[in-house]
Structures are given as C-alpha cells and as structure tokens.
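Sequence in, structure out. Go.
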Amino acid sequence: MDLSEALRHYVYMKLARDLDSRFESLLLTGRISKWYSEVGNEATTVAAGLALERGDALCTLHRDLGAILAVYLDPARTFPGFGLGEPDLRRPDPQKILHRLACQLLGKAPGFSQGIERSFHYAHLSPDEGIRHIGMISHLGSMIPVAAGCAFALKQSGTDRVAVNFIGDGGTSTGDFHEGLNMAAVWKLPLVLVIENNRYAFSTPTQLQYAARSLSDRGLGYGIAAETVDGNNPLAVSAAMQRAIERARAGGGPSLIEAILGRMRGHSEGDDSLKVVPKDELELFVSQDPVPNMAAKLEAQGALDAATRQRLDERIADLVETAIESALEAEIPEPATARRPTFAPSPETPAAPAASPSTPVTGKPGAAVTTYVEAVQRALTEEMEREDSVILMGQDIGVFEGAFRVTRGLFDRWPHRVLDTPIAESGTLGIAAGAAILGYRPVVEMQFGDFISCGFNQLVNVIAKMFYRWQIPCPLVVRLPVGGGAGAGPFHSQNPEGWFTHVAGLKVVCPSSAGDALGLLKSAIRDPNPVLFFEHKYLYRRIKEVLPEGEHLVPLGQARICRTGNQLTLIGYGSSIPLCLEAAERLNSEGVAAEVVDLRTLVPLDEETVMASVRKTHRAVVVHEAQSTGGFGAEVVARIMSEAFAWLDAPVRRIAYPDCPSPFAKNLEKELLPNIDDVIETARDTLRY
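Output:
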C-alpha cells in the first residue's frame, strides 16, 4: 500500500474516532440514550469499507461506523486538498449524508429511519449512489444469513459484486453463524465475513466462548478460505480484504477473516462491562490503539507532517461539529411516524367473486379436475414462467421434487432457480430475506410446517420488521404443509398459524380449496410483503376441483362466502371449511340455513365480510383445527363481540383442537380433531339459545 492509500485509511479512521468521541460526550450529557463505541475497531472497519466498490453490499453491526463512512463518503470531496484522488460526483454530498447520519444516531426526523430505529439498526439502499447498506439486527448472528442472501442475490443476478458482513466473537457462537456460513460455502456465495474479535462478548472472555485455537480455524471445516490478521493494522486488514474480495469476484466463494482487536470500551457506554478486562490487558490494548499508531507511522514516513495533520484535524472537527450541531437542531419525528405502514403497498388484484371461484368435483367420468397440491404446483409454475426473480428454496425440492411432490418438474426447467438447501431453516429464511430486499421473490418450502420453529427468529425478529424499520419491501413466501388427520404424530401435525398472526408485518394465508390455493399463492408471490402460506396437507389430494383456465388470482385479505344462509354463520379456514360445508348441508336437511364464511386470509383479516354475515344471521360458530388457547378463532370471536355484539342473539361459540400435542395413532388423533358432529351439535346449541 502506497502512502496516499495509507493516508486514505487514516483520514477515515480519524473521522470515525472523532465522531465516536463526540457521541460519547452526548451520552454523558443525556442527549442520547445509548451509545456503542467503535473505539479500537477503526483499522478493521475502515479497511473493510474501503475495499468495497460501487454496488457491493455492506452489512454492519453497531461497531462499524468506519466502514459506513468509507462506503458513504467520497474521499476527495470529504477531505479536499489532501491528494486523495479525483472527486466522484456519483456519491452523496459529504456534509448532507453526515447530517443525515447524525440525525439517525440522535433519533431525529431527517435520519434514515425517521426515529423508528436506534443507532446503526437502519438500512440505506441508494443504487444511484452505488450504496447497498443493510443495517444491523440485534440478534447478532442472524445478520450472517441475511448477508449471505445479499451475496446470493448479487451472484444470481450475474454480477461480480460481493457482500461484506461483520460479526463479533460472541456472535460466532450462534446457530446462524453455522447455518449462514455453511450455506454460503455450499453455494459458493461472494461473501466476506469479518470477525471483530476483541476477545470479550459483552463480558464473556473467549476461553468461555469456544475451544478452537482461533476462529479462523473454523473456515477449514466449511471448506472456505480463512485467515487471522492483526485488526489494529489497517494495511494488513486491507491486504486480507483484497485477497478475499478478489476470490469472491472470481467465483471462489466466501472467506472468513478474523481480525484480532483490543477491548478498549465496554459493550455499551456506561454499562461498566469494561471492568472485566484485566488492567494489564487494557493497558496493552491502549498501547496498540490503531488511530494514534497509524498517525505516528504516517508521520515517520513523511506522509503526515505537522501542518498537514493540523489541517486535517480542523477539517474533521468542522465535519463533525457541523453534522452534530445541525442534527441537534433538527426536528423530532412527528408522532404519526410511529403509525407508519407495517406492510408495503400491495398491487391491485381483481376482486374475487362472492361465490366459490371453482366447481367441486361431481365424480363424472372425464371431468378435468385439479387437486389442491396440483393447484399449488401450477401456481409456482405460472409465477416462475412470469417472473425470473421468483426462486424456490427448500429441503429436497430439486431432483426429489419435495416431500409432497409439490415442485414436480420444476427443477428440470429451472435448475438454477429451484435450490435444494441443507437442513437449515433459519439460514434458509435469512438468505431468502437478504435476496428479497435486493429484488428477488423467494418462495421457501418448509418440509413440514412444524419445522418453522427452527427459523422463528428470522421470521418474527428480522423478516416481519423489515418494512416498518426501513420502508424497504421484503417480498418472500414461506410455504408450510400443516395439520393433522394423517397420523403423523406430534412433530408433523401442528397448525401454528396463531404463532404468526400476533406478529406485525407478516401476512398469513390459509386456503381451503384448490382454486384458492392457486389464486392466493399467485397473489402471495406477487405481494411485496412476507407471506406465510399454510397448506393443509390432509387436503392435498382429497380436495379436487375444476379450475378456470388462464390467469386466476385471489386477493389477499378477502374472505369468501362459500354458502349463503340467514340463521347461523359458520366461520373457518383451511381444513375446517369442508367440515363447515358438510355440516351446513346436514343442517339444511333440518330446515336450518347456515352461511359458511371462509376467512382464507387471517392477516389481513376481512372483518367486513365476517361482520356483514353475523349481522344478517345473528349467530356465529368459529371452527379451526389449531389449539383452542391462543388459536386465531379467539381473535375472530373478540372482534365479533366488539363490532357486532348488538346484532347477536346468542354467544359466539368456538370449536378447536384441545390444548395438547397430536398423538400418533389415528384413532387417538381422530378423538381430538374437530369433526362434523362437533360442528352440528354446537350449531344446534347456538340456535337453541
């Protein structure tokens, strides 16, 4: 590295240090509530940021200010007169972007997240300026699959762009570290993972975190390049980064770089966690401080004389003070910002007919019929034909064509878009999320819906919150074969939709018919939001219908009146709808006109259709296969009581699965599943009230 390049590293390191110090002061005076210092990490983060080019993806945590500055700021315009190259007018105005960054850190309205997110949890995607910056997730290891997803998107689109992600030594103990890095290795993704090893995870020293000699040794197990470098030496980090990035751009896959640093601050300022560092260690770390040491080296080499250093210090002080003072005076967020949309605007979908859009099979010979599972397969095929950004991920969905053969024939047509994954639900969902925010539309198949619990964090803490946090769409679909009736036991029979209806930012869809499975899945794939698509596997080959030719879409958030009546409303979704329809038919023979409402989509819920039916019939029974306590039916009952109480002639009743796991023996399972007799008897009781 020549002297001008060394100086380039130093100016960003000094700017990061001075910004950091200024925010430490703001914390002491109560003008910010929390601060996570980068002091001691600058040599590593700046070197990593400067190694990136336009269009590369930067995925940061809370000690990576130096990398953010290196990616955002054009050196020639930020530090004019220091011989740092020609101005790049494609990059943002330095003072304006620093002001916006300071506003972000202070929680002011002009910040990147308008006060919604704290510190460095924001994202900034500005393709025209060449910036792809994905902000941090507090569940630290969970960043790695998301960064791998960004790398996947960059590779899938045919570019030579790379993604760089940071993680601390503590975050390497998480399952997502393994799942994300392993999948990146298997798929040879252009990912560079930089471990900032300051030898303490909050307060836990490395000897209590891992038994390996070094964290870079783990790279051997994943079959990837890995090395350990002196994280206080920006030249060493820069050289390692260049090797890793060149390897990634050439198709050589991911690299793991362990940068050894000194712990010079606590986990967060004021938490007193620095006390766990022995005094002699702390003194050693301070003596290795990369910022003053780099200045001393440049002075010794004649690249930073006293006059130049003073001029640089003055320029940095002006940048820092101007940005912070203007941010302190900036407006606070409007209260209404707290209620900004949780979902990205969905495309217009033609209104579905009030009656069922499909014709039930009558058993006539030669009828052109489609099963529920075939309808799902047709939806995937049509959407993959329509849009190249649709990609499928899941265990055994390629050559084997999936546990339920839903992806039959798709791998043969699109081998680069139908991707077998390792057994790594969390890693797969994180990669899908990273790919989605960079323009792809992943459809992830869980082999069984029960296994979604292994990816719970990625769904509820990462994917669900992305649009609200960043106002960046995250269009992905998770397909979940769920439900009982097949004697599959407690690990393959759950109906976990209620877990997710509570989580803001996730749409939840539960089709009961082949026509709805087709139309709703197509709409879900086109929706700019994450959609959980619950497919009841007992219905896969038992529900058969004649489906319309050509394009068939069903809007999300629109319930369906399956059968009209005026004495009682039966409300359900998924597997409960065939029960309700048969019960209504038997009740009709007794002179009772029952109306059947298929919710189809639980989030967003079509309250209008539900309330209109209840106000007409004055009685309601809600039926679902999920467990009673916390089941979504309780939410439907609560809303009816709130919005239609005055129209009710009887209490709203609910039929659900008991609060226990699913037994294996079919006769035991049958004992617990809601059945037609349950629906009929409850309906009669409601009518007698």
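Check: The longest strand covers residues 620-627. Confidence is low (pLDDT under 50) at residues 354-359.
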